[in-house]
Design goal:
This protein has 388 residues and is mostly helical. Helix content is 81%, strand content 0%. Helix 10 (201-232) packs antiparallel against helix 15 (357-375).
C-alpha cells in the first residue's frame, strides 16, 4: 500500500469509527426525546438530504482547490455536529446537528476521488476494497465502543465519536498529500455540471444503479436497531456489539477477498453477485425468529455488501475522466445521498406501519431492481466515451 493510500485508509477508518458509534445509538438516543419511528427515519434522512445538496459543491471544490482542504473541512463539520448532538436537549437540536454533518459531509466522495487520483483503473477495485475495509473495520470498532460506552450514558459514545473524528482531521492535516493542482482543475457551476454528467447515457445508468443500491442499503442500516429491538429485545449496548460482529465479515471480504475475486470475475460480475447475496440475506433475515438464525442470515448479506461497496465505487470512477473525478464522485454522492434520504424514511415508516419485516423485504426488492439495471450495463473505459 502506498503512503497516500495508507493515510486515506487511516483517515477514513478513524472517521468511520466515529460514524459507527452513532448509527446503532441514534434511534435509542432520539427516543429519549420522544421521537417516533418516522422522526428517527427523518433524522437519518435529513443528513443524506443535506449531503445531496452539498456533495456536488464539495466534489467541484475538490477538483478546483484540492482533495485535502475539502476532506479536512468535512471532518471538522462532523466534529462540530457530534458536539451539537451530545449537547442536544430537544429533537430540533438533533435535526440541527444532523444538518451540519450532512452539509459538510463530503469526506467519503472526496476519499474516492483521491483514490482515483493515485491508482490506475485496473487497480481501483482493490484500492476501493481497502477503503471498504476501512468502512468494515470502522463498523467493528465504532459499534463496539458504542456498546461499551452506552451503559455509562447515551452521550458518552457521542463525545467519543467527536474525539475520534477530531483525530482523523488532524491525521489528514499532518500527513495527507495533495493530488490536485489548481492549474489543471475543472471549472464550472456544480449543479449545471451535474446536469451535463447525467446527460451521458453511460454515466446515467451507473448512477441509477448506484442510487437504487444505496437506497436499499440505507433501508437496512437505519432500521437495524429498531428491528433487533422489536424482534429480539436488544438494547443500545447489545445492538452496538451485534453491529460490530457484522462488520468483521465485511472487513474480511473487502480487505482480503475482493481483489482476487474481481481479478477473476470483473467489477460488474462481482457487483451482481454481491447484489444476489445481499437480497438473499435480507429476505432470510426478515423471516427469522431467533438470534442464531438471524446471525446466519446476515452472513450472505455481509458478503454481498463486501462485494458491492467497492465494485460500485469502481464502476462509478471508471465513468469519469481523470480531471473530473471529484465532479463525478460528487454527482455519485448526490444520488447516493438521495437514496440514503429516501431509504430511512421509507424503512422506518414501513417498520412502524407494517412491522419489522417489511423494511428488509423491500430492501431486497430494491437490490433485485439494481441487479436488473446492471444486466445490460457495459463496463467500458471512459476514454472510449465522448468527453464531458
Amino acid at each position: 500500500m502506498t503512503r497516500p493510500l495508507l493515510v486515506i485508509f487511516l483517515t477514513i477508518f478513524v472517521n468511520l469509527v466515529g460514524f459507527g458509534i452513532i448509527v446503532p445509538l441514534l434511534p435509542f438516543y432520539a427516543e429519549r426525546f420522544g421521537a417516533s419511528g418516522m422522526t428517527i427515519g427523518l433524522l437519518f434522512g435529513v443528513f443524506s438530504l443535506c449531503q445531496l445538496i452539498a456533495s456536488p459543491l464539495l466534489g467541484e471544490a475538490s477538483d478546483r482547490y484540492g482533495r485535502r482542504p475539502v476532506l479536512i473541512f468535512s471532518l471538522a463539520g462532523t466534529v462540530l455536529s457530534f458536539v451539537m448532538l451530545a449537547l442536544a436537549d430537544s429533537v430540533l437540536m438533533l435535526f440541527l446537528a444532523r444538518i451540519v454533518d450532512g452539509l459538510s459531509g463530503g469526506n467519503i466522495s472526496t476519499a474516492r476521488a483521491y483514490v482515483a487520483d493515485v491508482t490506475e483503473a485496473k487497480d481501483r477495485s482493490r484500492a476501493y476494497g481497502l477503503i471498504g475495509a476501512a468502512f468494515g473495520l470502522g463498523f467493528i470498532l465504532g459499534p463496539a465502543l458504542s456498546g461499551l460506552l452506552a451503559p455509562i450514558s447515551y452521550t458518552a459514545p457521542i463525545w467519543a465519536a467527536a474525539g475520534i473524528t477530531a483525530v482523523a482531521m488532524v491525521t489528514a492535516m499532518l500527513w495527507l498529500p495533495e493530488t490536485v493542482h489548481r492549474a489543471k482543475a475543472a471549472t464550472g457551476i456544480p449543479f449545471l455540471s451535474m446536469g451535463t454528467i447525467l446527460r451521458q447515457p453511460y454515466v446515467r445508468r451507473v448512477l441509477a444503479i448506484d442510487f437504487v443500491y444505496w437506497l436499499a442499503f440505507a433501508v437496512f442500516q437505519t432500521t437495524f436497531a429498531l428491528f433487533v429491538a422489536r424482534r429480539f429485545g436488544f438494547d443500545a449496548g447489545q445492538t452496538g456489539y451485534f453491529f460490530a460482529a457484522f462488520g468483521v465479515l465485511g472487513a474480511v471480504v473487502q480487505g482480503a477477498l475482493i481483489g482476487p475475486i474481481v481479478g477473476r470475475l470483473g467489477d460488474k460480475a462481482t457487483f451482481m453477485l454481491g447484489l444476489g447475496c445481499s437480497a438473499f440475506g435480507l429476505l432470510a433475515a426478515s423471516m427469522t425468529a431467533s438470534v442464531a438464525l438471524f446471525t446466519l442470515a446476515l452472513v450472505p448479506l455481509a458478503i454481498g455488501i463486501g462485494f458491492g461497496h467497492p465494485t460500485i465505487s469502481s464502476l462509478v470512477s471508471r465513468a469519469a475522466r481523470q480531471d473530473e473525478q471529484g465532479r463525478v464522485q460528487g454527482a455519485a454522492s448526490a444520488v447516493e445521498s438521495l437514496g440514503r434520504a429516501i431509504g430511512p424514511v421509507w424503512g422506518n415508516a414501513s417498520l412502524q406501519r407494517f412491522g419489522e419485516a417489511m423494511p428488509y423485504v423491500s430492501a431486497a426488492v430494491f437490490l433485485l431492481a439494481s441487479l436488473l439495471l446492471s444486466l445490460n450495463h457495459q463496463v467500458t473505459e471512459v476514454r472510449e466515451h465522448q468527453q464531458m
